Automatic annotation (TrEMBL):
Origin species: Hylia prasina (green hylia)
Region (Disordered): 343-372
Limits of the DhaL domain: 371-570
Name of this protein: Triokinase/FMN cyclase
Purpose of the protein: Catalyzes both the phosphorylation of dihydroxyacetone and of glyceraldehyde, and the splitting of ribonucleoside diphosphate-X compounds among which FAD is the best substrate. Represses IFIH1-mediated cellular antiviral response.
DhaK domain mapped to chain residues: 8-335
Domain of life: Eukaryota
Self-association and partners: Homodimer. Interacts with IFIH1 (via the CARD domains), the interaction is inhibited by viral infection.
Coiled coil stretches, renumbered: none
Length: 570
């Protein structure tokens, strides 16, 4: 039996409603019943009240659609089970006693729902209430007409919206019933799923092989009309629209080029939002190609089947009047708060920003000559390429085993860059150009960390190249790495080697410092620090998620930095 995060299996429908009401000041429970009502019932005096409902497990339907501009109340059953006659009747009485000018029941076409709502309607009429019922059947799955008719699925939510906007405007029960029935007749919905679902405490409702998807299924875990191999999203959407509009399909929907529709891309509960966005884009593109205008698109979870990893598409042909009702304001929490406007894949893009003023090319620095720069960089690159396997091996214990690849990518990028143009000799320009190369090509966090280091170091070297400037540059680079990377010395990262070298370089600030001695000391400190990371506990970076007992090797980032420093300073 699949795992569920419930308190008790028997109480899950009540607990879900209680949670919704607890978090929503606009909702109230009806005492003794699984009924949710608007908290401002007084506002419906003299207007038509709208009630809907059905089994639980379709959240946010139906209680998410209760609010000004949509439903007055809903009646919930247990998971995938119709609500009781007594609760439906209690809801009708509650709104009638609040002074409603008639009640419209919006019911999905299932035998249980029709029976229970129908029985309550008959009893309420016997008590003198003016009650009507609209049965919604929007499913396009079945190609031959069955006696039971089309099932009511996600399109019902659009009916809640149209009816709610009309009731809010003060329309009569007759008018609402007529307009809602006309809209319901022309719309259609079709579901597609990659998985079944399971009622809390039960096994999955049907089995689907790893490579299969199911077309035309309902919202109660029942299997569909066709099983097929899993298709890419765009092909799956095309298959759905073809089935929905196929004239030989008894439950098809007629779409003529040039007509306007409202599209609902509904998550059946367990699809990731990433996949839902892909399906939505494919649906818009596919409809556009057929010459259909998508006046509005709603994307989200509107009527689900527990955790089913699937999607349904609803199309409702609209005229200006219907569109106005869809756009009308509502306080119902599950209705999206969208800017009214058409959906299109041809939306104009914001033009890319122009790059800022170029870097000064002619900055004079009496830095080492270009040939010397080239020699040093070549040495750094060949060092990193030679170490690739060693660094990957070190990284396997603590990370994802790609530290060597990442550094080799950087080395190849620098070699490529030097082949395309001679590197600038001025230190600030050199470091800042290297930062650009690494940010573009190196990848990983190390690419950004080196980029931060070099960019900050370059700032300290603008217009200076004396020894103290290099000490300042080293400190500035480390400070930038710490500010954004979050590591500190002792956290077992590349920072440990850099920090040790920086401490040694500080003596460049004292007059008469012997440059070569200081550089040699810096390299030795860096190498010693890299070796010392072997005994440290990781405090930052990916390795910090691994228990320290498993990290017997030195940190690959620290080892790489020490090797780069040796290559530069030799």
């Amino acid at each position: 039996v699949p795992k569920k995060l419930v308190t008790t299996v028997s109480g899950c429908a009540d607990d879900a409603l209680a949670g919704l009401v607890a978090c929503n000041p606009g909702l109230r429970l009806l005492q003794g019943h699984r009924v949710v009502l608007r908290n401002d019932l007084a506002a419906i005096r003299g207007r038509v009240a709208l009630l809907s409902g059905g089994g639980s497990g379709h959240e946010p339907a139906h209680a998410g659609y209760v609010g000004k501009g949509m439903l007055t109340g809903v009646v919930a059953g247990a998971v995938f089970a119709s609500p009781s006659v007594g609760s439906v009747l209690a809801a009708i009485r509650a709104v009638t006693q609040a002074g409603a000018a008639g009640v419209l029941l919006i019911v999905k076409n299932y035998t249980g729902d029709r029976l229970n709502f129908g029985m309550a309607l008959e009893r309420a009429r016997a008590e003198g209430a003016d009650v009507r019922m609209v049965v919604v059947g929007d499913d396009c799955a079945f190609t031959t007409p069955g006696k039971a008719g089309r099932r009511g699925i996600c399109g019902t939510v659009l009916i809640h919206k149209v009816a709610g906007a009309l009731a809010e405007e003060g329309a009569s029960l007759d008018e609402i019933e007529k307009k809602v029935m006309a809209a319901a007749k022309v719309m259609g919905t079709l579901g597609l799923s990659l998985s079944p679902c399971s009622i809390p405490g039960s096994k999955p409702s049907f089995q689907l092989a790893e490579d299969e998807m199911e077309l035309g299924l309902g919202i109660h875990g029942e299997a569909g009309v066709r099983r097929m191999k899993v298709l890419p999203a765009d092909k799956a959407v095309e298959t759905m629209l073809k089935h929905m509009t196929d004239p030989s399909n008894a439950s098809h929907l007629s779409l003529t080029p040039g007509s306007s529709v409202v599209l609902v891309v509904n998550n059946l509960g367990g699809l990731s939002c990433l996949e839902l966005g892909i399906v939505a884009g494919a649906a818009v593109r596919c409809l556009e190609n057929r010459g259909i205008c998508i006046a509005r698109a709603l994307v989200g979870s509107f009527m689900t089947a527990l955790e089913m990893a699937g999607v349904s598409l609803t199309l409702m042909p609209v005229d200006e009047e219907l569109l106005r009702l869809i756009d009308a304001k509502t306080m119902a929490m599950a209705w999206p708060n969208l800017l009214a406007g058409p959906a299109t894949t041809r939306r104009e893009e914001v033009p890319a920003p122009v790059e800022g003023p170029g870097k000064p090319q002619d900055e004079t620095g009496t830095g080492p000559g270009t040939a010397r720069v080239q020699r040093v960089l070549e040495r750094v690159c060949s060092t990193l390429l030679d170490m690739q396997d060693k660094l990957n091996e070190l990284d396997r214990g603590a990370g994802d085993g790609d530290c060597g690849h990442t550094h080799a990518r950087a080395a190849q990028a620098i070699q490529e860059w030097m082949r395309s143009r001679p590197p600038p000799a001025a230190p600030a320009q050199l470091l800042s150009s290297l930062a650009d190369v690494l940010l573009e090509q190196m990848g990983g966090s190390s690419g950004v960390l080196y980029g931060l280091f070099l960019t900050a170091a370059a700032r300290s070297l603008r217009g200076r190249s004396d020894s103290p400037a290099w000490a300042d540059a080293m400190d500035a680079g480390i400070e930038a790495m710490q500010r954004y990377g979050g590591a500190a010395p002792g956290d077992r990262t590349m920072l440990d080697s850099l920090f040790a070298a920086a401490q040694a370089l500080r003596s460049l600030r004292s007059p008469g410092a012997n440059l070569l001695q200081v550089l040699a000391a810096a390299v030795q400190s860096a190498e010693a620090a890299a070796e010392a990371t072997r005994h440290m506990e990781a405090g930052a970076g990916r390795a910090s998620y691994i228990r320290s007992s498993r990290l017997e090797q030195p940190d690959p980032g620290a080892v790489a930095v020490a090797a780069v420093l040796r290559a530069v300073l030799e």
